[in-house]
UniProtKB/TrEMBL annotation:
Full protein name: c-Myc-binding protein
One Gene Ontology CC term in the entry: nucleus
Family that this chain belongs to: Belongs to the AMY1 family.
Locations listed in the record: Nucleus
GO molecular function, one term: transcription coactivator activity
UniProt keyword terms in alphabetical order: Nucleus
CDD domains on file: ZIP_MycBP-like
Organism classification: Eukaryota, Metazoa, Chordata, Craniata, Vertebrata
Primary location class: nucleus
Length: 101
């Protein structure tokens, strides 16, 4: 039975290693260690850094990207609008001629 427990333990550690959990935890703990002014809540520090590194839900990541996509779309539309206005102005008579008629 002791051998079975060791085997499960080793399997679990391999799983943590393969999935990147050990690497991520190590990096966050090193960041805490290297922090010149230790935070009041070490657990809060860990939660903050782990939450920022890996979002809990893929939908959160999509929501974070949405404003960037909207900004890019806005800029493309604004540029297109500018070009179309320039093109349109070629076909419109100057303002002075309109008032003279």
């Amino acid at each position: 039975m002791l051998n079975s427990a060791n085997s499960k333990h080793e399997q679990f550690w391999r799983y943590l290693e393969k999935s990147g959990v050990l690497d991520t935890l190590t990096k966050v703990l090193i960041a805490l260690y290297e922090e010149p002014k230790k935070p009041n809540s070490a657990l809060g520090f860990l939660k903050h850094h782990l939450g920022a590194a890996t979002p809990e839900n893929p939908e959160i990541e999509l929501l974070r990207l949405e404003p960037l996509k909207m900004k890019q779309k806005y800029e493309a539309i604004a540029e297109e609008n500018k070009k179309l206005k320039a093109k349109l102005s070629q076909y419109e008579p100057p303002q002075e001629e309109k008032h003279a008629e």
